[in-house]
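Student: Hello, beginner here. Can you help me understand the protein record under this note? Any guidance would be welcome.
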Amino acid sequence: MNRPGNEAELAELVRGAAGPFVIRGGGTRGIGSPGPGAVLETGGLSGVALYEPGALTLVVGAGTPLTEVERVLAAEGQRLPFEPPDMRGLLGRGGESTIGGVVAANASGPRRVQAGACRDSLIGVRFVDGTGTVVRNGGRVMKNVTGIDLVKLMAGSHGTLGVLTEVAFKLLPAPEVQATLCVAGLADEAAVAAMAAALGSPYDVTGAAHIPGRGTFLRLEGFETSVRYRAGALARVLGRFGSVAEVGGDVWSQVRDVVPFHGQPGDVWRLSVTPSEAPALVVKAGAEAALYDWGGGLVWLRMAPGVDLRARLGRFTGHATRVRGEGAVPAFQPEPPALAALSAGLRAKFDPRGVLNPGLMKAA
């Protein structure tokens, strides 16, 4: 296993590569099937490079554990806006998630409906590409070296374009309080309509999720006086859908980490869809269980093992990713020809030798 201790060591290692690498942060959230290769672990690229609480800005080594990042921010009453999920329970893994792994997966939790995805909070990156060149974009440098927004491009690239060494984020203050409203007993279609009404209201909803059989949940965050006012007003908006009650407990970590699927058999799929189309797709899928997040724009499905969900659903607006499962079904959605050509061109530019996670995102 290769574990460089700094960016220069990493660049030298990649330049001298005799074969492919399997890039790994903490090994907690990777999906798909990378080809054979030597493991290249980023845990040595850790530490806070710059933290300015007054400017709501953090620059940190990509191998830094997510828990350490969250601890540093919590001490100043701040947080990452996008609420990164913990996939260990869902995937049955141990280890420590790294902040670089979060970026590589563009991992984003329930707050995405209000604060955006991981890539929307990312303001700078440093990485080593497949030639061993150190590339910088955004953040303190603010120079786009290729004419491409590499900050956005690297989020969700799963280590196929470069090995992240440093990431920079804009931050948010942690809220004073939060409140969760629950509408009980809604069928999936009514739940999506209720979430749409909440998200379309002026009450700044920061979470909208539906757990069939448990309830439809809406979250409000901020200063106590504001939250109390907005909770009352939102309850009146939701009243036409059914009985509304404020609930306690840690609902949002369960939604974020897909806790209802932990320890349950079967494959797990992640659908990104138009919310209004989600309930019909869940019925068509014949799923054993479902969980709706992002107001219905993200649907987690637990399926019987080996089911090719894409073949079962046919064409729809969105994409399906198999997050957990065995067998020959590709993890990633096949790209349309024009987008596939663009992706191939980017890989040829940034990894011309094909040494970084080759084949990981291959969809056929």
